[in-house]
Amino acid sequence: MTTRTPLVVGNWKLNTSLPEARALATAIAAIPIAGVETVLCPPFPWLVPLAELLGDAPIMLGAQDCWPEPRGAFTGDVSAAMLAPHCRWVIVGHSERRAIHREDDQLVASKVVAAFDAGLCPILCVGETEDERSSGHAERVIGRQVDSVLAGLTEERTRRLVIAYEPVWAIGSGQAATPADARSMAAMIRHQVATHAASAADSLRVLYGGSVNQGNAADIFAGDDVDGVLVGSASLDAVAFTAIRAAVAATS
Ligand code: PGA
Questions:
Q1: CB contact set of 76 (below 8 Å; sequence gap of 6+)
Q2: Is-above-0.90 flag for pTM?
Q3: Does any ligand 1 atom lie closer than 6 A to the CB of residue 209?
Q4: Please, which residues have CB within 8 angstroms of residue 86's CB and are 6 or more apart in sequence?
Q5: Whether residue 62 has its Cβ less than 6 Å from ligand 1
Q6: How far apart are CA 21 and CA 18, in angstroms?
Q7: Would you say 229 and 220 are in contact if contact means Cβ atoms under 8 Å apart?
Q8: Is residue 167 lining ligand 1, measured as CB closer than 6 Å?
Q9: Closest ligand 1 atom number to CA of residue 172
Q10: How far apart are CA 192 and CA 239, in angstroms?
Q11: Rg (CA), the chain
């Protein structure tokens, strides 16, 4: 039995008006679920009003990205240091950032360091494309993405890192990885962490993301390898997201 606390993260992406964001956060916070940590990642401008709205509710906030430099001529970017007063978490290296904004491993690694420097907890996303999987390169790609970040982290920071395995082909497709594949990739990631930082392998949390819904969350989470889920579309529906949190709590 693992001692790692299950983690359920909702990635709202570029969705919600402010009234919708308030209503969604209020509905989610209204149903506390013991034994699971919950993080909501709304668009940047909603972090401040939602932090005020949630107060001391047992729901945490995260940003969807950050820029590594603390300040300077980086039009349109928001630094980890600017986010830190308003949220606890930050998603880094999501496949949409890697693909649409051409973020490479080096930039992603520098964002993880900046997040830790600012006192945020980074959620590092890694995942292979459909081509990489079908050509048998999934493990090599994930290995490269994980290595490039771990190379710049102390053992103490590695212990606090969260890694989300999100196969690119599963995101938004309705086609989640099988629970067996999600678990074996999570186990592979943990094994790789152990080769960098032996003491971190037990405490670092590995999530699965990609078409998680209330029907598959429990199966994906079952077992000791997957420590929680990163949820996109289903996190925009308070009922579905609550059911996912409850399924994870009931399975842990
Ligand atoms: P999805 O998105 O749940 O809509 O597949 C997951 C993600 O992008 O993190």
A1: none
A2: yes
A3: yes
A4: 47, 48, 51, 61
A5: no
A6: 5
A7: yes
A8: no
A9: 5
A10: 36
A11: 17
